[in-house]
């Protein structure tokens, strides 16, 4: 078993122990073909480690059976020695993560909210009417590059989402959860261009929960209410698939998006916090 595979195994145990996944989807995918840069072993067995993304975002995990030995502190110090501007995700912002950040002189620089709602809760999930001049359809083969162009425009200033490449898309489309019918597109009838999209997700083997995976609206098509419409279309799709709960992630400072999701029945569930050294 490689160090990356051992680290992914530790992440599974940590998820069961903490009730929070220590690694994002991006990190789990990256560890399939990238060795972790910072690993701690004990008696030849990996007990802790971290993945450092190209942009300096860090996710780390310590095996629940090997905690309280300062391993997380060693990893944080080692990363900061090499990359003083590194930023560390604390998924769920658990008390131990808060204490670690404080001891390392780090402060919160970003909040990512998880919001959720029950399908049967109010307001009811209904399929909306698409505005005149636009048509909704599902993804078909050949839409990949057009979707990526839309995604880049919609997330031009987003630290992760706006950099998605064709390879990133193809990797996700090869996952067991991929369903072309779950990627809903709104097309401008006059130009044929994609104006908005809602990529939904139902993890393989987790049929009770659906996710608002990515909602994108072309900045040039704002003002038509397409964000709310395409979001509602995706929610209706997930409800039709029989999920009981729907989750989503949204930047805590995106007040417009948070307000839209609250109107659609979502409430804050948990928060992921990114920490960085003071002045970094």
Automatic annotation (TrEMBL):
It comes from the Bacteria. The keyword Transmembrane does not apply. Monomer. Acetyl-CoA 1 binds at residues 60-62, 68-73. Acetyl-CoA 2 binds at residues 215-217, 222-228. The keyword Acyltransferase applies. GO terms for biological process: mycothiol biosynthetic process. Belongs to the acetyltransferase family. MshD subfamily. InterPro entries: Acyl_CoA_acyltransferase, GNAT_dom, MshD_Acetyltransferase, Mycothiol_AcTrfase. It catalyses: 1D-myo-inositol 2-(L-cysteinylamino)-2-deoxy-alpha-D-glucopyranoside + acetyl-CoA = mycothiol + CoA + H(+). NCBIfam families: mycothiol_MshD. One of its GO terms (molecular function) is mycothiol synthase activity. Residues 1-126, 134-280 form the N-acetyltransferase domain. It is an enzyme of class 2 (transferase). Transmembrane segments: none annotated. Keywords: Acyltransferase, Repeat, Transferase. Its EC number is 2.3.1.189. This is Mycothiol acetyltransferase. Catalyzes the transfer of acetyl from acetyl-CoA to desacetylmycothiol (Cys-GlcN-Ins) to form mycothiol. PANTHER family: L-AMINO ACID N-ACETYLTRANSFERASE, MYCOTHIOL ACETYLTRANSFERASE.
């Amino acid at each position: 078993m490689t160090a990356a595979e051992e680290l992914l195994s530790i992440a599974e145990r940590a998820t069961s122990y903490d009730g929070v996944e220590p690694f994002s989807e991006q990190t789990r995918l990256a560890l399939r073909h990238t060795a972790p840069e910072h690993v701690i072993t004990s008696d030849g067995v990996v007990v802790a480690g971290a993945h450092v993304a190209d942009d300096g975002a860090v996710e780390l995990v310590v095996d629940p059976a090997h905690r309280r030995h300062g391993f997380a502190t060693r990893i944080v110090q080692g990363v900061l020695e090499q990359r003083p501007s590194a930023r560390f995700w604390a998924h769920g912002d658990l008390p131990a993560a808060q204490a670690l950040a404080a001891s390392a002189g780090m402060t919160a620089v970003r909040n990512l909210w998880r919001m959720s709602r029950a399908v049967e809760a109010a307001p009811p999930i209904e399929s909306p009417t698409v505005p005149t001049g636009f048509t909704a359809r599902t993804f078909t083969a050949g839409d990949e590059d057009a979707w990526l162009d839309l995604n880049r425009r919609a997330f031009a200033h987003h630290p992760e989402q706006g950099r998605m490449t064709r390879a990133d898309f193809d990797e996700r489309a090869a996952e067991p959860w991929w369903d072309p019918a779950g990627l809903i597109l709104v097309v401008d009838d006059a130009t044929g261009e994609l104006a908005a999209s809602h990529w939904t997700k139902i993890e393989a083997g987790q049929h009770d929960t659906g996710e608002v995976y990515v909602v994108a609206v072309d900045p040039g098509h704002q003002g038509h209410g397409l964000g709310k419409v395409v979001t509602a279309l995706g929610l209706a799709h997930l409800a039709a698939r029989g999920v009981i709960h729907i989750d989503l992630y949204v930047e805590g400072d995106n007040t417009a998006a948070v307000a839209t999701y609250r109107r659609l029945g979502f409430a804050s569930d948990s928060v992921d916090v990114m920490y960085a050294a003071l002045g970094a």
